[in-house]
Amino acid sequence: MLTFQLLDTLLFFKHRHNEIFIMKKVSLSLIAIALLSSTAVYAHDGHHNLTASKNMMNDSMAAMHGMHTLKLTGVPSYDFIAGMLPHHEGAIVMSEKILPSLTDPQIKQLAENIIKSQKEEVVFMKKWLASHKTINPKDVDMKASQEMMTKSMQVMHGMMTVKLTGNPNIDFVEGMIPHHEAAIKMAEVVMPYLKNEQIKTFATNIVKAQQHEVAFMKSWLAKQK
């Protein structure tokens, strides 16, 4: 009788051992599947975010095409506004395109602020251009207009060299810094030649606002590294 009980006990433990072994194998398999799934999701998200960053940059460049085709009049005030208009439109498109992908609250707020402020300035610039189509030969200074556009383009070349990371927050900031710096350079170069007081004030405000945003972006970016 004792022998049968002992045999039953041994068989029971062997059976339990096999169950535990099988359960361990199943658990390890589930962990492996979970790891593979998370890796696949991460890879997919990374690809998606990189696509979002690429689209942001491409659409922004397309929106600023007007800067490259701009026919200078030689009147610094008029050419400054005519050049700044597509530049602002590029910043708006850039911000709107990336906004749904932004996860950092500060950068999301920055993008929303850029959209709001620069849309208001675009409205002003379009109205001003429409009411200043007549060119006074006395106001022509082609050299000033050419210098403004050349130096602005040189600074904006930094956008072309941005290495996208796939992190929309970082890519947006990395791209917006040279974009803002080009606007600042454009305003600073043309400032001494501006005869229209309204446009001189407008240019001054652009420099102040965008210098402030550049300082914030550089500070934020330094904390991400």
Automatic annotation (TrEMBL):
Gene3D superfamilies, per database record: 1.20.1260.10
One of the Pfam families matching this protein, by short name: DUF305
InterPro entries (alphabetical): DUF305_CopM-like, Ferritin-like
Superkingdom of origin: Bacteria
Protein name: DUF305 domain-containing protein
Residues annotated as domain DUF305: 79-161, 170-223
Organism whose genome encodes this protein: Photobacterium damselae
PANTHER family, alphabetized: SLL0788 PROTEIN (PTHR36933)
